Amino acid sequence: MRILITGGAGYIGSHTLLEILGEKHDVCVIDNYSNSSPVALERVAKLTNSNFVKVAADVCDERALNNVFEDFKPEAVIHFAGLKAVGESAAVPLKYYEHNVQGTIALLKAMEASGCDRIVFSSSATVYGEPVYLPYDEDHPCAPTNPYGRTKYFVEEILKDWAHSNDRNSVVLLRYFNPVGAHSSGRIGEDPDDIPNNLMPFVSQVAVGRRSKLQVFGNDYDTPDGTGLRDYIHVVDLARAHVAAVDYVAKNRGVDAFNIGTGKGATVLEVVKAFEAASGREIPYSFGPRRAGDIAASIADPAKARKMLNWQAKHSLKDMCESSWEWQSGNPNGYRSD
Ligand SMILES: NC(=O)c1ccc[n+]([C@@H]2O[C@H](COP(=O)([O-])OP(=O)(O)OC[C@H]3O[C@@H](n4cnc5c(N)ncnc54)[C@H](O)[C@@H]3O)[C@@H](O)[C@H]2O)c1
Q: Residue 119 is part of which domain span?
């Protein structure tokens, strides 16, 4: 199939691009590099020994999108492009609504104009909000607690309306839990520009000496050791979920949401311990207060994805930490190491 990948230079996008190219699909990547580097695309091209089209443009730019659809004629879209920092989304919500919501509407309009009717969307477990029960299944009520989560929720609703507006349309909403790790080559990985918002890149930057210690937000949660518990998913498993989702939108119509997680949780201290074992480095840490908006635990029920997408996570927490370390130690300054 001809597949357009928006945000394909980013962390999850680059890993998915690699897997999609491995399936011999034709690909066009559109990215404005606002949170990524074109070096990631060069490295994927080398690793896969394949060519693909690259367009440097913003998904809010309707004219650029129409040109891409006219030239490349995608048959399906995987839509990663967007902003993802929860804290920043509270400070500048309009920027988040513009990139995440407006960007998706522009994309859907360009799809309609060219007759492209299949889309896989990067949603998030943040759409669920405070758990009413755990593990979350896809029928859990959605009540996101921050502007970022609300952009994902609103886009899901827009995509549902769009799916129902024409019986040819096909939409898959992938609700990611906590993606971590890197490709086994150590050549692509997560490369936050700023202070990392997520645990694993922070821990790996402490291990490599870029930061002095980890601040653990809260040790009085109702979890086995008091620290926050999350369902970490290896980014390569997540990338493979997109391969399955592309196959699914090609064969099915309508709209479906799927949790993409392992169904198992690890606490912050368990991740620190696993990372110390993987890296052979000590991770100094101290406890601080809880972070506003954080919940005690988040775990996926991934049964629906197993049944309907025929997809299942394969990698362990050990694999996640080892591959993160391989990437971080080989590229201490991320893609700027080149
Ligand atoms: N990483 C996570 O923990 C996580 C969890 C759940 C959902 N998601 C979602 O998955 C998607 C990918 O996340 P990621 O971790 O790879 O983030 P990322 O920032 O590494 O990747 C996003 C990519 O989109 C590009 N981009 C952003 N706005 C754009 C725009 N307006 N036009 C064109 N390109 C644009 C960025 O330059 C970047 O390459 C995002 O939509 C994110 O919200 C991520």
A: 2-182+233-261
